[in-house]
Amino acid sequence: MQANLAIFNELSALLPGRVRSAEPMKKHTTWRIGGPADIFVEPINRQEIYTIVNYSRDRGVPLFVIGAGSNLLISDSGIRGIVVKISSGLDRLSIVDNEIKVEAGARLAQVLAAARDAGLGGFEFLAGIPGNIGGAVFMNAGSNGSSVSELVKKVLILNLDGNYECISNEEMRFGYRTSILQFDPAIVVEVIFTSYPRDKEQIKQEMAIFLARRKASQPLAYPNAGSVFKNPPGDSAGRLIEAAGLKGLRVGDAQISPLHANFIINLGSATARDVLGLIDQVKETINRRFGVKLQPEVKFAGQE
Ligand SMILES: Cc1cc2nc3c(=O)[nH]c(=O)nc-3n(C[C@H](O)[C@H](O)[C@H](O)COP(=O)(O)OP(=O)(O)OC[C@H]3O[C@@H](n4cnc5c(N)ncnc54)[C@H](O)[C@@H]3O)c2cc1C
Fold first, then answer.
1. Distance from first CA to last CA of the chain, Å, rounded?
2. Span 150-164, pLDDT tens digits
3. What are the residue ranges spanned by the domains of the chain?
Protein backbone atom coordinates (compact mmCIF):
# COMPACT_ATOMS: atom_id res chain seq x y z
CA MET A 1 0.00 0.00 0.00
CA GLN A 2 2.71 2.42 1.13
CA ALA A 3 4.87 1.34 -1.82
CA ASN A 4 1.97 1.87 -4.24
CA LEU A 5 1.44 5.39 -2.93
CA ALA A 6 5.13 6.16 -3.47
CA ILE A 7 4.98 4.79 -7.05
CA PHE A 8 1.77 6.72 -7.70
CA ASN A 9 3.32 9.97 -6.45
CA GLU A 10 6.63 9.53 -8.29
CA LEU A 11 5.01 8.55 -11.60
CA SER A 12 2.42 11.33 -11.28
CA ALA A 13 5.27 13.82 -10.89
CA LEU A 14 6.68 12.58 -14.22
CA LEU A 15 3.27 12.33 -15.96
CA PRO A 16 0.99 14.82 -14.19
CA GLY A 17 -2.70 13.89 -14.18
CA ARG A 18 -2.21 10.73 -16.20
CA VAL A 19 -1.69 8.08 -13.53
CA ARG A 20 -4.52 6.21 -11.76
CA SER A 21 -4.34 3.91 -8.77
CA ALA A 22 -6.46 0.82 -8.01
CA GLU A 23 -7.98 0.95 -11.49
CA PRO A 24 -10.62 -1.82 -11.96
CA MET A 25 -9.34 -3.89 -14.89
CA LYS A 26 -12.86 -5.11 -15.68
CA LYS A 27 -13.29 -1.68 -17.30
CA HIS A 28 -10.51 -2.57 -19.73
CA THR A 29 -11.34 -6.14 -20.80
CA THR A 30 -14.05 -7.28 -23.21
CA TRP A 31 -14.90 -10.07 -20.73
CA ARG A 32 -15.66 -7.31 -18.17
CA ILE A 33 -13.64 -9.30 -15.65
CA GLY A 34 -10.54 -8.34 -13.65
CA GLY A 35 -9.55 -6.88 -10.27
CA PRO A 36 -7.63 -3.65 -9.74
CA ALA A 37 -4.29 -2.67 -11.23
CA ASP A 38 -2.10 -1.05 -8.56
CA ILE A 39 -1.02 1.66 -11.00
CA PHE A 40 -2.59 2.32 -14.42
CA VAL A 41 -1.38 4.64 -17.16
CA GLU A 42 -2.70 5.20 -20.66
CA PRO A 43 0.07 7.09 -22.50
CA ILE A 44 -0.78 9.56 -25.25
CA ASN A 45 2.61 9.76 -26.92
CA ARG A 46 5.88 7.85 -27.28
CA GLN A 47 7.69 10.02 -24.77
CA GLU A 48 5.20 8.91 -22.11
CA ILE A 49 5.73 5.20 -22.90
CA TYR A 50 9.46 5.78 -22.71
CA THR A 51 9.11 7.50 -19.32
CA ILE A 52 6.99 4.64 -17.92
CA VAL A 53 9.36 1.91 -19.16
CA ASN A 54 12.42 3.68 -17.77
CA TYR A 55 10.69 4.30 -14.43
CA SER A 56 9.66 0.64 -14.18
CA ARG A 57 13.19 -0.55 -15.01
CA ASP A 58 14.94 1.87 -12.62
CA ARG A 59 12.61 1.10 -9.69
CA GLY A 60 12.20 -2.61 -10.41
CA VAL A 61 8.40 -2.26 -10.60
CA PRO A 62 6.74 -4.92 -12.82
CA LEU A 63 5.10 -3.63 -15.99
CA PHE A 64 2.25 -5.25 -17.90
CA VAL A 65 0.99 -3.96 -21.25
CA ILE A 66 -2.54 -4.25 -22.55
CA GLY A 67 -4.34 -3.10 -25.68
CA ALA A 68 -8.11 -3.39 -26.02
CA GLY A 69 -8.23 -6.30 -23.53
CA SER A 70 -10.07 -8.53 -26.00
CA ASN A 71 -7.90 -11.61 -25.42
CA LEU A 72 -7.23 -11.30 -21.71
CA LEU A 73 -8.39 -12.98 -18.52
CA ILE A 74 -7.26 -10.83 -15.60
CA SER A 75 -7.45 -12.36 -12.12
CA ASP A 76 -9.98 -11.21 -9.53
CA SER A 77 -7.22 -9.89 -7.29
CA GLY A 78 -5.87 -7.76 -10.12
CA ILE A 79 -2.36 -6.85 -11.23
CA ARG A 80 0.51 -5.72 -9.00
CA GLY A 81 2.81 -3.04 -10.36
CA ILE A 82 2.09 -0.86 -13.40
CA VAL A 83 -0.38 -1.58 -16.20
CA VAL A 84 0.22 0.45 -19.36
CA LYS A 85 -2.62 0.58 -21.85
CA ILE A 86 -1.60 1.26 -25.46
CA SER A 87 -4.77 2.58 -26.99
CA SER A 88 -6.41 5.58 -28.69
CA GLY A 89 -3.77 8.10 -27.55
CA LEU A 90 -1.32 6.31 -29.82
CA ASP A 91 -3.24 5.69 -33.02
CA ARG A 92 -1.64 7.81 -35.73
CA LEU A 93 -1.78 6.27 -39.18
CA SER A 94 -0.20 7.22 -42.50
CA ILE A 95 -0.21 5.64 -45.94
CA VAL A 96 2.57 5.87 -48.51
CA ASP A 97 2.12 3.90 -51.72
CA ASN A 98 1.21 0.34 -50.63
CA GLU A 99 2.42 0.68 -47.05
CA ILE A 100 0.40 1.56 -43.97
CA LYS A 101 2.35 2.83 -40.97
CA VAL A 102 0.29 2.79 -37.80
CA GLU A 103 0.84 3.26 -34.09
CA ALA A 104 0.14 0.27 -31.83
CA GLY A 105 -2.88 1.81 -30.09
CA ALA A 106 -4.96 2.03 -33.27
CA ARG A 107 -7.86 -0.39 -33.46
CA LEU A 108 -7.72 -3.09 -36.15
CA ALA A 109 -11.02 -1.69 -37.43
CA GLN A 110 -9.37 1.72 -37.96
CA VAL A 111 -6.66 0.16 -40.14
CA LEU A 112 -9.22 -1.85 -42.11
CA ALA A 113 -11.26 1.29 -42.79
CA ALA A 114 -8.17 3.24 -43.86
CA ALA A 115 -7.02 0.42 -46.15
CA ARG A 116 -10.48 0.15 -47.71
CA ASP A 117 -10.71 3.92 -48.28
CA ALA A 118 -7.25 3.94 -49.89
CA GLY A 119 -8.10 0.94 -52.10
CA LEU A 120 -5.53 -1.31 -50.41
CA GLY A 121 -6.37 -5.00 -50.09
CA GLY A 122 -5.22 -7.89 -47.92
CA PHE A 123 -6.77 -6.89 -44.57
CA GLU A 124 -10.31 -8.10 -45.33
CA PHE A 125 -10.09 -11.38 -43.37
CA LEU A 126 -9.51 -9.36 -40.18
CA ALA A 127 -12.95 -7.71 -40.36
CA GLY A 128 -14.75 -8.04 -37.04
CA ILE A 129 -11.73 -8.95 -34.92
CA PRO A 130 -11.68 -6.48 -32.04
CA GLY A 131 -8.40 -5.37 -30.51
CA ASN A 132 -5.59 -2.95 -31.16
CA ILE A 133 -2.60 -3.25 -33.46
CA GLY A 134 -0.12 -4.04 -30.65
CA GLY A 135 -2.29 -6.91 -29.39
CA ALA A 136 -2.89 -8.17 -32.94
CA VAL A 137 0.85 -8.37 -33.62
CA PHE A 138 1.64 -9.91 -30.21
CA MET A 139 -1.04 -12.57 -30.81
CA ASN A 140 -0.59 -12.87 -34.59
CA ALA A 141 -4.35 -12.48 -34.80
CA GLY A 142 -6.08 -14.09 -37.72
CA SER A 143 -9.01 -15.89 -39.17
CA ASN A 144 -9.99 -18.13 -42.06
CA GLY A 145 -6.48 -19.53 -42.42
CA SER A 146 -4.78 -16.13 -42.69
CA SER A 147 -3.04 -14.03 -40.06
CA VAL A 148 -1.61 -10.57 -39.46
CA SER A 149 1.90 -11.95 -40.08
CA GLU A 150 1.15 -12.04 -43.83
CA LEU A 151 0.81 -8.25 -43.82
CA VAL A 152 3.53 -7.14 -41.38
CA LYS A 153 6.71 -5.66 -42.82
CA LYS A 154 8.32 -4.17 -39.70
CA VAL A 155 7.53 -3.70 -36.03
CA LEU A 156 8.97 -0.92 -33.87
CA ILE A 157 9.27 -2.09 -30.27
CA LEU A 158 10.47 -0.54 -27.04
CA ASN A 159 12.11 -3.28 -25.01
CA LEU A 160 11.87 -3.33 -21.23
CA ASP A 161 15.45 -2.02 -20.96
CA GLY A 162 14.21 1.17 -22.59
CA ASN A 163 15.73 0.65 -26.06
CA TYR A 164 13.89 0.96 -29.37
CA GLU A 165 14.36 -1.81 -31.93
CA CYS A 166 13.00 -2.23 -35.42
CA ILE A 167 12.11 -5.91 -35.95
CA SER A 168 11.64 -7.55 -39.33
CA ASN A 169 8.81 -9.98 -40.11
CA GLU A 170 11.25 -12.94 -39.89
CA GLU A 171 12.59 -11.76 -36.53
CA MET A 172 9.02 -11.63 -35.18
CA ARG A 173 8.93 -15.49 -35.44
CA PHE A 174 5.21 -15.52 -36.09
CA GLY A 175 3.31 -18.77 -35.69
CA TYR A 176 -0.28 -19.83 -35.01
CA ARG A 177 -1.44 -17.14 -32.50
CA THR A 178 2.12 -16.50 -31.40
CA SER A 179 5.12 -14.23 -31.92
CA ILE A 180 8.55 -13.68 -30.38
CA LEU A 181 6.96 -11.10 -28.05
CA GLN A 182 5.26 -13.90 -26.10
CA PHE A 183 8.72 -15.13 -25.05
CA ASP A 184 10.73 -11.91 -25.08
CA PRO A 185 8.40 -9.18 -23.76
CA ALA A 186 8.54 -5.66 -25.21
CA ILE A 187 6.05 -2.95 -26.06
CA VAL A 188 4.87 -2.71 -29.66
CA VAL A 189 4.93 0.98 -30.57
CA GLU A 190 4.38 1.07 -34.33
CA VAL A 191 3.85 -1.35 -37.20
CA ILE A 192 4.38 -1.06 -40.96
CA PHE A 193 2.02 -3.20 -43.03
CA THR A 194 2.43 -3.97 -46.74
CA SER A 195 -0.58 -4.22 -48.96
CA TYR A 196 -1.58 -4.11 -52.63
CA PRO A 197 -4.04 -2.07 -54.72
CA ARG A 198 -7.54 -3.54 -54.85
CA ASP A 199 -10.96 -2.30 -55.96
CA LYS A 200 -12.71 -0.55 -53.02
CA GLU A 201 -16.08 -2.15 -53.75
CA GLN A 202 -14.57 -5.64 -53.73
CA ILE A 203 -12.86 -4.89 -50.40
CA LYS A 204 -16.13 -3.62 -48.94
CA GLN A 205 -18.08 -6.66 -50.10
CA GLU A 206 -15.54 -9.14 -48.77
CA MET A 207 -15.41 -7.41 -45.38
CA ALA A 208 -19.21 -7.44 -45.20
CA ILE A 209 -19.22 -11.21 -45.80
CA PHE A 210 -16.70 -11.83 -43.00
CA LEU A 211 -18.68 -9.56 -40.63
CA ALA A 212 -22.00 -11.24 -41.41
CA ARG A 213 -20.49 -14.70 -40.72
CA ARG A 214 -19.27 -13.52 -37.32
CA LYS A 215 -22.60 -11.96 -36.40
CA ALA A 216 -24.36 -15.22 -37.21
CA SER A 217 -21.96 -17.53 -35.37
CA GLN A 218 -20.63 -15.58 -32.36
CA PRO A 219 -22.40 -14.64 -29.09
CA LEU A 220 -21.68 -10.93 -29.46
CA ALA A 221 -24.51 -9.85 -27.14
CA TYR A 222 -22.50 -11.03 -24.10
CA PRO A 223 -19.06 -9.98 -22.86
CA ASN A 224 -16.51 -12.51 -24.18
CA ALA A 225 -12.89 -12.79 -25.33
CA GLY A 226 -13.30 -14.60 -28.62
CA SER A 227 -12.02 -18.16 -28.93
CA VAL A 228 -10.82 -19.43 -25.57
CA PHE A 229 -8.78 -22.36 -26.91
CA LYS A 230 -6.48 -22.72 -29.91
CA ASN A 231 -7.58 -25.21 -32.51
CA PRO A 232 -5.62 -28.46 -32.18
CA PRO A 233 -3.84 -29.56 -35.39
CA GLY A 234 -6.37 -30.66 -38.02
CA ASP A 235 -9.42 -30.08 -35.79
CA SER A 236 -11.44 -27.33 -34.18
CA ALA A 237 -11.67 -26.72 -30.45
CA GLY A 238 -15.31 -25.64 -30.85
CA ARG A 239 -16.22 -28.90 -32.60
CA LEU A 240 -14.63 -31.01 -29.83
CA ILE A 241 -16.30 -29.02 -27.02
CA GLU A 242 -19.67 -29.28 -28.74
CA ALA A 243 -19.18 -33.02 -29.40
CA ALA A 244 -18.49 -33.52 -25.68
CA GLY A 245 -21.89 -31.99 -24.93
CA LEU A 246 -20.44 -29.05 -23.02
CA LYS A 247 -22.38 -26.23 -24.71
CA GLY A 248 -24.31 -24.29 -22.07
CA LEU A 249 -22.18 -25.61 -19.14
CA ARG A 250 -21.99 -23.01 -16.37
CA VAL A 251 -19.72 -22.15 -13.47
CA GLY A 252 -21.14 -19.17 -11.60
CA ASP A 253 -21.95 -16.56 -14.22
CA ALA A 254 -19.49 -17.93 -16.80
CA GLN A 255 -21.03 -20.15 -19.47
CA ILE A 256 -19.87 -22.10 -22.52
CA SER A 257 -21.81 -20.25 -25.18
CA PRO A 258 -24.81 -22.22 -26.46
CA LEU A 259 -24.11 -20.55 -29.85
CA HIS A 260 -20.35 -21.13 -30.23
CA ALA A 261 -18.70 -23.78 -28.05
CA ASN A 262 -15.24 -22.17 -28.10
CA PHE A 263 -16.59 -18.94 -26.55
CA ILE A 264 -17.11 -18.44 -22.81
CA ILE A 265 -19.62 -15.71 -22.11
CA ASN A 266 -20.11 -13.56 -19.03
CA LEU A 267 -23.79 -13.73 -18.10
CA GLY A 268 -23.49 -10.74 -15.77
CA SER A 269 -21.15 -11.01 -12.84
CA ALA A 270 -18.73 -13.79 -13.82
CA THR A 271 -15.37 -13.79 -12.05
CA ALA A 272 -11.98 -14.92 -13.32
CA ARG A 273 -12.31 -17.85 -10.92
CA ASP A 274 -15.58 -18.88 -12.65
CA VAL A 275 -13.93 -18.73 -16.09
CA LEU A 276 -10.88 -20.68 -14.90
CA GLY A 277 -13.18 -23.31 -13.38
CA LEU A 278 -14.90 -23.71 -16.72
CA ILE A 279 -11.60 -23.82 -18.63
CA ASP A 280 -10.33 -26.60 -16.33
CA GLN A 281 -13.52 -28.66 -16.79
CA VAL A 282 -13.32 -28.30 -20.58
CA LYS A 283 -9.64 -29.29 -20.69
CA GLU A 284 -10.21 -32.30 -18.45
CA THR A 285 -13.28 -33.49 -20.39
CA ILE A 286 -11.72 -33.10 -23.85
CA ASN A 287 -8.57 -34.90 -22.75
CA ARG A 288 -10.58 -37.76 -21.21
CA ARG A 289 -13.04 -38.10 -24.10
CA PHE A 290 -10.78 -37.49 -27.11
CA GLY A 291 -7.19 -37.62 -25.82
CA VAL A 292 -6.63 -34.03 -26.96
CA LYS A 293 -4.86 -31.50 -24.74
CA LEU A 294 -6.46 -28.15 -25.50
CA GLN A 295 -4.20 -25.10 -25.20
CA PRO A 296 -5.70 -21.74 -24.22
CA GLU A 297 -5.60 -18.96 -26.80
CA VAL A 298 -6.56 -16.29 -24.24
CA LYS A 299 -3.75 -14.85 -22.13
CA PHE A 300 -3.84 -14.79 -18.33
CA ALA A 301 -2.59 -11.94 -16.18
CA GLY A 302 -2.55 -11.01 -12.54
CA GLN A 303 -2.09 -12.59 -9.13
CA GLU A 304 -3.86 -15.81 -8.14
C1 LIG B 1 -15.75 -11.19 -30.25
C2 LIG B 1 -14.28 -11.52 -30.42
C3 LIG B 1 -13.85 -12.14 -31.56
C4 LIG B 1 -12.48 -12.43 -31.74
N5 LIG B 1 -12.09 -13.04 -32.89
C6 LIG B 1 -10.78 -13.29 -33.09
C7 LIG B 1 -10.34 -13.91 -34.30
O8 LIG B 1 -11.11 -14.22 -35.20
N9 LIG B 1 -9.01 -14.12 -34.45
C10 LIG B 1 -8.09 -13.79 -33.48
O11 LIG B 1 -6.89 -14.00 -33.68
N12 LIG B 1 -8.49 -13.23 -32.31
C13 LIG B 1 -9.81 -12.97 -32.09
N14 LIG B 1 -10.20 -12.39 -30.91
C15 LIG B 1 -9.22 -12.14 -29.85
C16 LIG B 1 -8.58 -10.73 -29.87
O17 LIG B 1 -9.43 -9.79 -30.48
C18 LIG B 1 -7.24 -10.72 -30.57
O19 LIG B 1 -6.33 -11.62 -29.96
C20 LIG B 1 -6.61 -9.31 -30.55
O21 LIG B 1 -5.55 -9.27 -31.45
C22 LIG B 1 -6.12 -8.90 -29.16
O23 LIG B 1 -5.78 -7.52 -29.21
P24 LIG B 1 -5.95 -6.60 -27.92
O25 LIG B 1 -5.48 -5.23 -28.25
O26 LIG B 1 -7.32 -6.70 -27.39
O27 LIG B 1 -4.92 -7.30 -26.92
P28 LIG B 1 -5.10 -7.54 -25.35
O29 LIG B 1 -6.19 -8.50 -25.10
O30 LIG B 1 -5.14 -6.24 -24.63
O31 LIG B 1 -3.71 -8.25 -25.02
C32 LIG B 1 -3.43 -9.55 -25.54
C33 LIG B 1 -1.94 -9.83 -25.32
O34 LIG B 1 -1.20 -8.91 -26.12
C35 LIG B 1 -0.27 -8.17 -25.32
N36 LIG B 1 -0.23 -6.80 -25.85
C37 LIG B 1 -1.29 -5.97 -26.09
N38 LIG B 1 -0.87 -4.80 -26.62
C39 LIG B 1 0.48 -4.88 -26.69
C40 LIG B 1 1.51 -3.97 -27.13
N41 LIG B 1 1.26 -2.74 -27.60
N42 LIG B 1 2.79 -4.41 -27.05
C43 LIG B 1 3.10 -5.64 -26.57
N44 LIG B 1 2.17 -6.52 -26.15
C45 LIG B 1 0.90 -6.15 -26.20
C46 LIG B 1 -0.83 -8.23 -23.89
O47 LIG B 1 0.19 -8.15 -22.91
C48 LIG B 1 -1.51 -9.60 -23.87
O49 LIG B 1 -0.60 -10.61 -23.50
C50 LIG B 1 -11.56 -12.10 -30.72
C51 LIG B 1 -12.00 -11.47 -29.54
C52 LIG B 1 -13.35 -11.18 -29.39
C53 LIG B 1 -13.81 -10.48 -28.13
1. 18
2. 999 999 999 999 999
3. 2-85, 89-215, 219-301
Q: Are 45 and 89 contacting, i.e. CB atoms less than 8 angstroms apart?
A: yes
CB atoms within 10 A of CB 58: 9
Yes or no: domain 2-85 corresponds to CATH 3.30.43.10:
yes
Which residue intervals of the chain are DSSP H helices? Answer: 2-14, 46-59, 108-117, 133-139, 200-217, 237-243, 272-290
**Ligand 1 pocket test: which of 42, 71, 91, 111 has the largest number of ligand atoms within 8 Å of its C-beta?**
71
Q: Which amino acid, 112?
A: L
177 is catalytic: yes
| Marked catalytic residue, from 107, 116, 177, 198 | 177
The CATH code belonging to domain 89-215 is 3.30.465.10
- 3 pLDDT above the threshold of 90: no
Catalytic residue among 75, 195, 227, 257: 227
Banded model confidence at residue 8, pLDDT cuts 50, 70, 90: very high
Q: Is 197 exposed, middle or buried (0-12, 13-18, 19+ CB in 10 A)?
A: exposed
CA distance 91 to 106: 4
Query: Which residues does residue 156 pair with via DSSP β-bridges, in sequence order?
Result: 166, 190
Task: Tell me the three state secondary structure of residue 262.
Answer: coil
Taking the CA of residue 187 as reference, the ligand 1 atom at the shortest distance is 42
In tens, the pLDDT along 30-76 reads 999 999 999 999 999 999 999 999 999 999 999 999 999 999 999 99
Q: Is the CB of 223 under 6 A from ligand 1?
A: no
CA-to-CA distance for 179 and 176, rounded, in angstroms? 8
R_g of the chain, CA atoms, integer Å: 20
Query: Fold for domain 219-301?
Result: 3.90.78
